[in-house]
Write a structure and sequence with these properties.
The protein is about 55% helix and about 0% strand. With about 290 residues, the protein is an all-alpha fold. It has a two-stranded antiparallel sheet with strand order 1-2. The chain is globular and about 70 Å long.
Amino acid sequence: MIDTAKVIAWYRANARDLPWRRPGTTPWGVLLSEVMSHQTPVARVAPIWEEWIARWPTPADLAAAPTDDVLRAWGTLGYPRRALRLKECAQTLVDASDGSVPRSVPALLALPGIGDYTARAVAAFAYGQAVPVVDTNVRRVYARAVLGRPVARPQKAELEWVAELLPADDAAVFSAGLMELGALVCTASSPTCSSCPLRDDCAWLAAGSPAPTADELARRKVQKFAGTDRQVRGKIMKVLREATEPVPQSAIDIVWPDDAQRSRALYSLLEDGLAAQDADGRFRLP
């Protein structure tokens, strides 16, 4: 079982000092942090988030920023299309609500680049709403503590399961606590059960900590990065970010030896609006 009071108390004593958790963070700051943290370690996100919130503290500020500045500031966070979606989101907020971040999940879902998890996270952590927020960490904690076994993939009923746990008070703190517990203690490969506040009631521990199934192990495999089109795209983006003026084809040709793969990666950047080509054939950020 999951004792909500234990999770809340543990979180208040052990939560990491992440900049977007500090007093005074706006709903816009929370939204930025959630988008940036998707599939990216928070240690990499924190300094870039602080730079963004200093340069563009409101949606109106980001909406007015040149796209090339936004892409340069995104740096190496990965998936740079997220930076473009954030700029689109900021413009939508300015046009639709004078720059205010909406409070409801449906209204948040209507924004460009905002999916179900992010919408719920913003509603919970920016506005303190009692809405279930389920990520990989929460799914793992619930599966072990309540079901007594790993869960290989998202479950249809998981939002309902977590919603039933939400306390009347401090629901958002509890949700953050579940995530933090999964990130720091109830980790996928090396859980430190001795320091877990739920150890006395954990169904997984009671069952002898059964090993993950082959399906679960397959789901854990980290997607290969080296040699992929994504790596080549990143190398080309680095050239464009660091250039002070449009670059010739030769500056891009030297970043990767495979002509076909390099051409494919460059074309995909142009298609995604992450790169632009001038009339003279040179390339730059849009």
